């Protein structure tokens, strides 16, 4: 049985492929990331400009035109058919203490714009310093702690707008 794939081009066009379809593709590597492709006796020059193998997203240049391509495999298609959005999750609006400890440093201020993975504060717990980072980009709405405050597990530390 051949595995199904769905290929999305520029988030506009969708193509259904199987392993069998891909095995019939006449493509020859001419150099690193450059290919000569024949499809229905028409020649194409293709180049993989960039690739993110883990998320299966590619930027491909074909005869001078660049296309954003993403590939959904059999599992992706099953998850989609179940009505589940891959990578979707709830938006985190609050940062709570993951463990009891002592606030060593607050790295942000109210109203400050932060990006995902920016340091928010440093919490000392069990003689270890733990840097709590932003789970998302956003604006700091409030800070419920100050340097040298002792906190309990689950205590509100920072709120996002």
Automatic annotation (TrEMBL):
Membrane-spanning parts: none
Keyword annotations from UniProtKB, A to Z: Biotin
Alphabetical list of Pfam families matching this protein: Biotin_lipoyl (PF00364)
Organism: Flavobacterium urocaniciphilum
Coiled-coil boundaries: none
InterPro entries (alphabetical): Biotin_BS (IPR001882), Biotin_Carboxyl_Carrier/Decarb (IPR050709), Biotin_lipoyl (IPR000089), Single_hybrid_motif (IPR011053)
Statement: the UniProt record of this protein carries the keyword Membrane: no
Domain Lipoyl-binding per the UniProt entry, residue ranges: 79-161
Protein name as annotated: Biotin carboxyl carrier protein
